[in-house]
Amino acid sequence: MSSSQELEVTLETLPQILQNDTKVKVAGVDADGVLRGKLMSKSKFLSIAKSGFGFCSVVFGWDMHDMTYFQELKISNKENGYRDLIAIPDLSTYRRIPWEGDIPFFLVSFYDPDTQEPVCACPRGLLKTQLDKFKAHGYDAMAGAEYEFYQFKTPSTDSSDAKPSTAAYLRDNPPHTLPALTEGMFGYSITRPVHNKDYFYEIFDSCAKFKCDIEGWHTESGPGVFEAALEFGQISDMADRAGLFKYAVKSIGTKYGITPCFMAKPKQGLPGNSGHTHFSVVDKDGKNLLARETKDENAPWPDVAHLSDLGRHFLAGLIDGLPYIMPLLAPTINSYKRLVENFWAPVTVSWGLEHRAASIRLIAPPTSKPGATRFEIRVPGADTNPHYVMAAILGLGWRGVEKKMEIKLPPLGKGEDVGSGADQGERLAKNLKDAVDKFMEKGSIAREVFGDDFVEHFGGTRRHEIRLWDEAVTDWEMKRYIETV
């Protein structure tokens, strides 16, 4: 590591840190979790590092394929001329992109040019707003993320140097013909990664250099499926690293003619891709505040005997609000193909100590150390925006703490699967339309936690997805009806 890289990144040290560079890459996060950015000269970057620069608001006015939303939304629309927002670099996010010649990289956050406040839909801003509620009371939050994802490959070309893009392949071939990186179900295999060892190890090593370190890295059950557990850390940093992990994997994949797929359910009849999120509350010294000092012999259930009062209130808030924030945890049409019975994915409001079938898995003594006490939210898929997911966990949990809410639902019984118990909570939304309706209904918990501006904006973006789906003619329809009706 060079001496310039060891310096604390401040406005004063930036010129020295970038002394050998000519260009800088910057990016912000849109509502779908997609990085939107640009390359700029070093001199330009240094001139805007403090005050920010104009960034077209259309990144919050169009979908992931750059189609403007059917419904004109408040942040960016024809009436305001798709005006610029202010994008301010976050110097703490400095890192270098190892697969792009170590070019310096910074994340930006988006601010309203009139109010100077974070744009309501800016994922980094939304998370900061929720975290500020914690920090005002001397708390902080830690988080971890796990992603499962499929790898698809494009057929080899005559030239070893030319790798056809997935888009080019799909232009002439049906999506379901895209071959998997490897065939068969080989979860936790130590031989399967050897088949593509250069790709497998380059992801691990490059993520370490790119400051989105992987803690555990292995094959998961499914053809060509990998799973990464990212290193646990402070929640804002964790959300950034989770989004950048996807960027790293997709970028490295292009080098090998491989397309990593973070869809929640890429293949019918096979397991889906989860995006489990771990969460804990700490004080300013890093002490875990979810752990109880001594076992509560009078706990309402043995599952929470080692969970603090703050932890119980937090869990109660999660349970109470979970049905109202489903579009944040399952944001696409495809998300709900994963959340079905009998696929080890949660479908009801449920929780339990070390229960992997529940929506909220409590990890606490006696099966873990007190300092590792945490919640694992198992509803999100790999297709989620990590900033929104973590903002939702913070927002719902803090609501429970503020209101001193009590857990209103018994834990999922041992050996009891989701959907089989009479005491379980309500069935979570089965599709995006139902999820959005509950999210946007008058007086919803989502509105209480995030405010009307965010709910109206994000709900509007999801209604755009629903309309596109309603108008789509699928392969299934053609196969089923082309000759028979």
From TrEMBL:
GO terms for molecular function: ATP binding; glutamine synthetase activity. Residues 123-485 form the GS catalytic domain. GO terms for biological process: biogenic amine metabolic process; glutamine biosynthetic process. The keyword Ligase applies. Keywords: ATP-binding, Ligase, Nucleotide-binding. The keyword Isomerase does not apply. SMART domains: Gln-synt_C. InterPro entries: Gln_synt_N_sf, Gln_synth/guanido_kin_cat_dom, Gln_synth_cat_dom. It comes from the Eukaryota. Belongs to the glutamine synthetase family. This is Glutamine synthetase. It comes from Pestalotiopsis fici (strain W106-1 / CGMCC3.15140).
